[in-house]
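Is this the right way to post C-alpha cells for a design question? Let me know if I should format differently. Anyway, here goes:
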C-alpha cells in the first residue's frame, strides 16, 4: 500500500471525531425535529409503528463537516464536495420539513451534483482492460458525473426505509472506499470516506432497530452525494484498470434495490418517486424476517461484495503482467462467495421467479384455499 495507515492517522481521527459528534448531536436534532413537526408517521414505505422524528441528516452533515475542515487539505476538489454536500443537506432538510415536489427535489439534487464538477470533480479519464486510458472531453465527463452523483443520492434515499439499513450500508461503503483510496495515494478521499463511515456508525447508535430517529432525505442525500463524489475523486480518476468497476460492486446493493423498484413501478405504470413497499427490505419482512435480521442480512450482503472489491485490489493475481494461480484462485473464491450470496438473496426474495418451488407451493395452497372456499359457499 503506497500510503500506510500509520502514516495517516488522520483517517482514524476523522472517523472517530465524526462518530462522537453524531452520537452527541443526534438526540438534540431529534428533539428539534419533534418541535418542528418533522416526524414520520407509520405509513407509506416506512416500517415504523409509531411516529419517529426525521432530520437526523443534520447531525450526520455536521459530523462530516467538522472533521473534514480539521483534517482535509481543502483544495478545489474537497471544497467543491463539501459545498455540494451542504446544498444536498439543505434540499433534503426542506423536503423533510415541508415536502418538495419530485421536480423541485430533482432540481435541487442536480444543483448539488453540479457544484463539485465546477471544482474539478468530474470523470476526465478512466482505464479499460485491453484498451488502456480513455480520455473524456469536459462536455461529456461532467454530465456523466452529475448523473452518477444524482443516481447514488436517490439510491441511498430509496434504501432508507428500514431502521439502520442505509446507515449500515453507507458505513461499509465508506470503509471500503477509504481503504481503496488510501492504496491509490488519494489521501483526502480516504479521510473523507472514513469520516462518512464514522458518521454512519455514530448514527446507528440512535437509528438501529428500534430507531429513535430517521436520517430523512437530509441524511440520505448527503451520504449518497458524498460517497458518489468521493468515488469519482478518489477511485475513478486513476490509471488502475480494476478500479473502474469497484464503486459499482461496493454500491451493488442500493443499485440492485433501486433498479428492481424502478423497473416494477414502470411495469405497473406508477410514478418512479411514489412511495410503496416493493423494496428488497420490505420483501425480507414479507417472508418473515425481523427488521434487525433483515438489516444485518443486507449488511452482510454488502460486506461480501466489498470484500470482493478489496480482493481484486490487494491480492496480486496478475502481478507483473503474469497470472499467479494461487492468488487467482483466492480472488475467484472470494468473488464466487459474493456471487453465491447474491444468488441466494435473489432466490430467497423471489426476485427472479424461475422454477422456484416456494412459488409453486404457494400457488398450490392458494388454489386449494380457493377450491375449499367455493365448496363451502356451495
Amino acid at each position: 500500500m503506497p500510503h500506510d495507515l500509520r502514516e495517516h492517522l488522520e483517517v482514524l481521527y476523522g472517523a472517530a471525531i465524526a462518530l462522537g459528534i453524531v452520537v452527541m448531536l443526534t438526540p438534540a436534532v431529534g428533539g428539534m425535529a419533534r418541535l418542528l413537526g418533522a416526524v414520520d408517521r407509520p405509513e407509506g414505505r416506512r416500517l415504523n409503528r409509531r411516529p419517529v422524528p426525521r432530520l437526523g441528516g443534520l447531525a450526520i452533515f455536521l459530523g462530516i463537516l467538522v472533521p473534514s475542515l480539521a483534517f482535509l487539505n481543502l483544495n478545489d476538489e474537497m471544497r467543491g464536495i463539501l459545498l455540494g454536500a451542504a446544498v444536498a443537506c439543505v434540499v433534503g432538510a426542506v423536503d423533510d420539513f415541508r415536502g418538495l415536489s419530485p421536480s423541485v427535489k430533482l432540481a435541487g439534487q442536480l444543483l448539488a451534483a453540479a457544484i463539485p464538477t465546477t471544482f474539478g470533480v468530474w470523470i476526465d479519464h478512466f482505464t479499460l482492460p485491453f484498451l488502456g486510458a480513455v480520455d473524456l472531453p469536459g462536455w461529456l465527463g461532467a454530465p456523466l458525473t452529475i448523473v452518477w452523483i444524482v443516481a447514488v443520492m436517490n439510491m441511498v434515499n430509496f434504501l432508507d426505509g428500514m431502521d439502520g439499513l442505509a446507515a449500515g450500508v453507507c458505513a461499509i461503503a465508506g470503509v471500503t472506499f477509504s481503504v481503496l483510496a488510501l492504496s491509490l495515494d488519494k489521501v483526502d478521499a480516504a479521510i473523507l470516506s472514513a469520516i462518512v463511515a464514522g458518521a454512519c456508525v455514530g448514527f446507528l447508535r440512535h437509528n438501529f432497530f428500534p430507531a429513535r430517529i430517521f436520517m430523512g432525505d437530509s441524511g440520505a442525500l448527503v451520504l449518497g452525494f458524498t460517497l458518489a463524489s468521493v468515488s469519482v475523486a478518489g477511485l475513478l480518476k486513476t490509471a488502475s484498470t480494476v478500479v473502474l468497476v469497484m464503486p459499482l460492486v461496493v454500491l451493488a446493493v442500493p443499485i440492485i434495490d433501486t433498479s428492481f423498484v424502478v423497473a416494477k413501478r414502470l411495469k405497473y405504470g406508477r410514478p418512479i418517486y411514489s412511495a410503496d413497499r416493493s423494496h428488497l427490505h420490505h420483501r425480507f419482512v414479507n417472508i418473515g424476517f425481523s427488521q434487525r435480521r433483515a438489516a444485518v442480512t443486507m449488511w452482510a450482503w454488502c460486506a461480501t461484495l466489498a470484500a470482493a472489491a478489496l480482493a481484486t485490489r490487494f491480492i496480486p493475481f496478475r502481478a507483473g503482467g503474469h497470472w499467479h494461480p494461487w492468488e487467482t484462485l483466492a480472488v475467484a473464491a472470494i468473488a464466487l462467495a459474493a456471487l453465491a450470496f447474491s444468488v441466494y438473496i435473489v432466490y430467497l426474495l423471489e426476485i427472479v421467479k424461475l422454477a422456484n418451488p416456494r412459488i409453486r407451493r404457494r400457488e398450490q395452497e392458494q388454489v386449494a384455499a380457493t377450491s375449499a372456499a367455493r365448496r363451502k359457499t356451495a
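Format looks fine. Someone answered above. Worth noting: The longest strand covers residues 125-128. The chain has 14 helices and four strands.
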